[in-house]
Amino acid sequence: MRTWILVMLACLLLWMGGVESVPHAAAEKDFISLDTKEQAIARAMELMLIPNDAQITEATRVGSSSGLWRLGFLTAEKNENGNATHGGEIVLRSSDGELLSYSQWKWPTDSTGWGPAQEAFDMSKEKVDREEAIKIARSFLDGQPWKLNAEWIVDPYPESEYSTRTDSKTMHKIRFDRANKGMRLDQQTFSVFVDRISGEVVAYEVNWHKTEFVSPSHMLDQAAAARILVDLAQPYLTNAEGGNDLLGYAMVFEYTLDAVKGTLPERYNIPIPNDKVVGKPKISNAMAKQLLLSMYEIELQYAITDTSMEGWRVEPFYRMVVKPEVPRFYTGKAPIVDARSGQWKDFVGAPLQRAMPEPSDWLIAAAASTGRIRYPSAIAVEGEFVALTAAPIVQNGKVLTSAKELMTAIRGNLLWDAKTSKLTAIKDGKRLVMKAGSDKALLNGKTIRLQSAVRIVKGRTHMPATAIQQAFGANVSWQASSRFLLIRMNDRPVTPTASELGKLRWDAQLEWARNGFR
């Protein structure tokens, strides 16, 4: 009886030329087949997909064997040019009335402030910040009557200025992506425009499709995927938009890795450009790669593997994509690394106006784990990596480092007597006199034995690192797996966290790539 009433009502509305204010009904699980357009319209109304004041503009059978109904609708709302500003499209399966796709859009009837060549918004007038706008947009989304089976989460990645050049600058554009168990599918979206001053929802657009979310029985974990992505990602040389005066290293904007096979399918990945470039680089490919990798974040997402009018099939993929906080060029292009200076530049060669973010923990774990480091050894003082011109020497667990660089790092002084081959380390009123080739030293006139003898290697005098512990009270710890000598010049113990050690390894690896220590 209930369905019959809705069908008759839909016929009446079609005859009148529109859909009037009618109470929407809840969805029924045992819906009958849709044999007529009146039944299709009634089903759409039951799912609360058609605005009360909309007119049906299309009701046609589509798809193979005409097994689907496509409905179009518009309201009477128009802008000053007479163009409709509120409408949508619905696709239903005729055999059981299941919703297969749905879109609806609503734009302001006054298009002032929309379109190209807009003036920048005066931020001093803003009363609703982005965080508040997200709350307003979420409330608006949750308040919609549509019976859509969907989870929506905020898309954290900004759109380029170019792609949003026609959007009103007086609005916050909040994009929600469809999700399943917290994993995003960014090809289905719900965009809400919130006024920066009033907080009013001024416009919106939704795009939804029936979707099969595939959950494989076995997938790579993020750590394994990250290692594969780090190995497969490669920088390339480009003159970009700076002409022959600019030579830079760049990477493609994102990489998409099959979460099961661990491969980069051609369907989802842009080929690395192989354009002819002018100029020769002065920094190594390894250094450029490490710098460029710091731009990226990794996320497990869904990507489309099959589409039809009956619905979508999506599967999990790991995406390595440029972080939201990375400064981008107007077109959305990511920064490049100047191949001559190693400095960050935008895509036309101008210095960046904002600092680049630090590398993420996943990247450090993948690129600078203890099993992947290539530098021979390194030093950190008070938790800060110290760049050296000569790598420390490690023999049988004993670390010797350049006496001059070590004393400079701990803010001490060093005197060298070439005639006697003696060196004197001075700090805080204490004097440590050592001699090349000997493990004996004088500390304020008293003889002490060093851990190992002072050595001259390639013209540089190296002293045992533990000498500063004996002489100046430093706390010294050798982290063998990280090949790091850690020094603190106070009473605090040397107990770095795993995260702190990872960051130190990253810095040392970058220095190694910069200077080519072997």
**What helical percentage do the residues reach?**
10-25%
Average the pLDDT over all residues and give the rounded result: 89
Low-confidence stretches: 1-29
Structural class: alpha+beta
Large-scale geometry: elongated
Query: Major sheet, described briefly?
Result: 8 strands, antiparallel
Give the total of beta strands. 29
Q: How many helices does DSSP assign?
A: 9
> What is the gyration radius calculated from CA atoms?
33 Å
Strand order of the largest sheet: 1-2-3-4-8-7-6-5
Percent strand equals: 25-35%
Distance between the termini: 84 Å
Explain how this protein is built.
The chain has 518 residues and is an alpha+beta fold. The protein contains 9 helices and 29 strands. The strands form 6 sheets. The protein has an 8-stranded antiparallel beta sheet with strand order 1-2-3-4-8-7-6-5. Helix 4 crosses helix 6 and helix 5 runs antiparallel to helix 9. The longest helix has 18 residues. The chain starts with a helix and ends with a helix. The N terminus is likely disordered.
Kindly summarize this structure in a few lines.
This is Copper amine oxidase N-terminal domain-containing protein. InterPro entries: Cu_amine_oxidase-like_N, Mao_N_sf, YcdB/YcdC_rep_domain. This protein is α+β, with helices and mostly antiparallel strands and 518 residues long.
Supply database-style keywords.
alpha+beta, disordered N terminus, elongated, 518 residues
Q: What's the layout of helices and strands?
A:
Elements: H1 2-16, H2 37-46, E1 55-62, E2 68-74, E3 86-93, E4 99-106, H3 130-142, E5 151-154, E6 171-180, E7 183-195, E8 201-209, E9 211-213, H4 222-232, E10 236-238, E11 248-250, E12 254-258, H5 285-293, E13 296-308, E14 311-322, E15 336-338, E16 344-345, H6 361-367, E17 378-381, E18 384-386, E19 393-395, E20 398-402, H7 403-409, E21 413-417, E22 422-427, E23 430-435, E24 440-443, E25 446-449, E26 455-457, E27 460-464, H8 467-472, E28 475-479, E29 484-488, H9 498-515
Pfam families: Cu_amine_oxidN1, DUF4901
Domain YcdB/YcdC repeated: 37-208
Protein name: Copper amine oxidase N-terminal domain-containing protein
